[in-house]
Design goal:
Length: 447
């Protein structure tokens, strides 16, 4: 077993990851984050949260916190299934905020890769997606570290200062956040603040402040993840970012396989929505209760998680699946409620072997006196059905509406090939001081 300082060094090694050949994929996930930020900023909850973050901190770091919060509340941002970490929400706002005149698109994409890879490796080492069963939120746990790594990369910190930034970020890792209830749950605010804290860690390290390089050890990992902790995951032989999924609709990822299964049955014509008498949704025991815990009348979040409600939308109001706002006007719809009541969610131990590499579902649909079954392991946007640029832009048109200009997404997609794209993207994200591409580079920190 490596010593304590060795584990931190192992985590930091991911900062050497190379982006060559991965630029298009990284840019696509960045564009997906731009889409989520645009959609989230239109919601009542997103506007209120962004205003609060600005009041708390009217500076650049307050904007980072606001963007991270708004992206994450959409439930349409990307996710890594084995760890359940939503990496773009914790790295993209840092990247477009801290980019400077001497950076180009490749610099920003590399910072994203570094931040995302470190966040995913820490998430895997803590225990991955199964942490959710223990009341832990993997994305919140790793947010300070992923944000610090992204910021450190853009700040040009040498390896020794990067390790200090990570040590400072690790000291700010939150533990069990508790259960979130109410119309404005605090989870999004806490997530945004965790991302902000990671930025502070990197800026402090750049200023010469040190953390505790011995903090990250097996005992620290086990103190959070218990028997799920896997220190060896800090040194993955492959890039974990290769396993990222893009969501086709705003929804908890755990519900998307069931939604896709019903969509397939309806599209095939073997099942008619008005003939459906009952649906059984079989899912791994790890998240069966989550998908049926809160009724849709409880909150906007419940309307993004409750699989019975989302299957009702898929069958009767499919366009509503792309509505990020999910305001409560449909919650009292008698037809939707009646359909949702015909859906049962069942834990299926037979699917557990697939989890968390996949978030599967097996649907058994009774319609017109016949039974139809569909098992779904991968849904659109997963690595096995990865989106290309055209599919991402189609998602944007569905979510944002056909009249919404897609130039911000195009700027993100062209970062690696268009010298002016980074300047334009920062302007799209609301940075009034967006730099000119020809501005001189400031001096870089020295070791």
């Amino acid at each position: 077993m490596a010593g304590a300082a060795g584990l931190l060094a192992q985590l930091a090694e991911a900062a050497s990851a190379r982006i060559e050949g991965r630029e298009a994929r990284l840019a696509r996930h960045l564009a997906d984050a731009v889409l989520a930020r645009t959609a989230g900023a239109r919601t009542r909850e997103g506007r209120a949260l962004a205003a609060l973050c600005e009041r708390l901190d009217p500076g650049l770091l307050g904007q980072v916190a606001a963007d991270a919060s708004v992206i994450r509340l959409t439930e349409i941002d990307d996710i890594h299934r084995p760890t359940a970490v939503t990496v773009s929400a914790l790295t993209a706002p840092v990247a477009w905020a801290l980019a400077r005149p001497h950076h180009d698109g490749a610099d920003l994409l590399r910072a994203l890769l570094v931040g995302q890879e470190l966040a995913l490796r820490l998430g895997a080492a803590l225990g991955g997606a199964r942490l959710l069963m223990r009341g832990l939120w993997p994305s919140l746990l790793v947010a300070p570290v992923g944000a610090a790594a992204t910021a450190a990369c853009l700040l040009g910190l040498p390896p020794d200062r990067l390790r200090q930034a990570l040590a400072l970020a690790l000291a700010q890792v939150p533990r069990a956040p508790g259960s979130f209830r109410g119309q404005r749950p605090g989870r999004w605010l806490l997530f945004g603040q965790a991302v902000r804290n990671g930025c502070v860690a990197a800026l402090a390290a750049a200023d010469g402040i040190d953390g505790d390089p011995d903090l990250l050890d097996a005992a620290w990992l086990q103190g959070i993840g218990g028997d799920l902790a896997r220190p060896d995951a800090l040194q993955s032989p492959e890039l974990l970012t290769e396993g990222l999924s893009i969501k086709p609709h705003p929804s908890a990822k755990q519900a998307l396989a069931a939604i896709h299964g019903l969509q397939q049955l309806l599209a095939s014509g073997v099942v008619q929505a008005d003939q459906i008498e009952a649906i059984e949704v079989h899912v791994p025991p790890a998240y069966a209760a989550m998908l049926d815990r809160d009724p849709p009348s409880t909150s906007r979040l419940a309307r993004l998680v409750n699989v019975r409600w989302q299957l009702a939308l898929a069958a009767l109001q499919p366009d509503a699946l792309d509505d990020v706002a999910r305001e409560d006007e449909r919650a009292g719809d008698d037809r939707l409620q009646a359909f949702a009541a015909r859906v049962r969610v069942l834990p299926d131990a037979g699917l557990d072997a697939l989890y968390p590499a996949a978030f599967p579902a097996r649907l058994v649909v009774q319609a017109a006196g016949q039974s139809h079954e569909r098992r779904v392991t991968d849904s659109p946007g997963d690595p096995a059905q990865a989106f290309d640029d055209a599919q991402l832009l189609d998602k944007a048109r569905r979510v944002l509406g056909p009249q919404t200009p897609l130039a911000p997404l195009q700027h993100a997609l062209r970062l690696a090939v268009d010298p002016g794209a980074l300047h334009a993207l920062r302007g799209d994200m609301g940075y009034a001081d967006s730099f000119a591409p020809t501005s001189p580079a400031p001096p870089r920190p020295t070791p």
